[in-house]
Amino acid sequence: MPRDLLHALREGGYDVSALAPAPESDTDSDPFDHQPAAHAADPQQAIHLLLAVYHATGDPAIGLWLGSRMPPDLLGLAGLPAMAGPSLGTALRRIARYQKLLAGDRVELRRQGDEAWVCIRPSDPEAPDSRPRIDMELCSLLAFGRRFTRKPLHPLRVSLRIGRPAWHLRYTEAFDCPVRFGEPEDAIVFGRRDLALRLMARDRSSPAAPPASRDLRPAAASLYDVRSALQQLAGDRALSLAAVARHLDISERTLQRRLMAAGTSFRTLCEDARRELAGHYLSEGALSLGEIAFRLGFDDANSFFRAFRRWTGMTPGDYRRHAAPAPQPQPPA
């Protein structure tokens, strides 16, 4: 079950086991391989549980209540790279990219003049749980921004597709901004400057080693540092030499000089890091191909599939099956 939703329900005193039995597994969700029977971020489980809560409480604004109470650090697989981003805009783009890999609603960011729109595109707008689900998603994104920017973060307005309901004041209370009903889409509208707000999620308390001390390390050790940095930053789609240099507290020129002295290139090391991580994730068997693609900075599972086949000559599914431990023989009765 999704941890963020479970946490909010338990904090509200709900008996989760009584509200929703385990849903049936979906065997058709991965076009390339059989997914594990259960993993941490299954949107169908979240939908199943939310619908059960909606029917059990009879509260049409339950999504607002849940979204404002879900701890933003329990966003699942998208949470860690989002929290590690330098700004709110980067975090929201990472969450949106992760949502593209899943069957479910989409998060879309766009800019219109001085406004930044964060839109929810429901997978099934007419589903019975569509409204509480969208309310929950919008509120949880706002809660994430407020927590990790450590700012009040007042949106310019919220745009909702539904007509003005009898409980409309609960929307104003939840978002603390003007709310417009009967709009073409569901969105939070920020000022563009809001997306530039720095995130305070990362621990910046320990000082980085001075650049001079790192420059004095031998070439072999520095190459090891580069490989370690690439594995930590692999989820960034726009991974660059400059980003790795900043991570290592050295200049781009120094980093480039070290790579040349080691007889390798930045692109080669990026490919190596992602290939090694892919093999590790596939061998573990706990993540779907879409989740692995996200962790490695790919736009979708198809892109990861093609890259992995180029690296190894095998499909991810074939690799996973070969890496799986052989079944142990049962002792005789």
UniProtKB/TrEMBL annotation:
One of its GO terms (cellular component) is cytosol. Keywords: DNA-binding, Transcription, Transcription regulation. Pfam families: Arabinose_bd, HTH_18. InterPro entries: AraC-type_N (IPR032687), Homeodomain-like_sf (IPR009057), HTH_AraC (IPR018060), Tscrpt_reg_AraC-type_HTH (IPR020449). Residues 224-322 form the HTH araC/xylS-type domain. GO terms for molecular function: DNA-binding transcription factor activity; transcription cis-regulatory region binding. SUPFAM superfamilies: Homeodomain-like. Residues 19-39 are annotated as: Disordered. This is AraC family transcriptional regulator. It comes from Cupriavidus nantongensis.
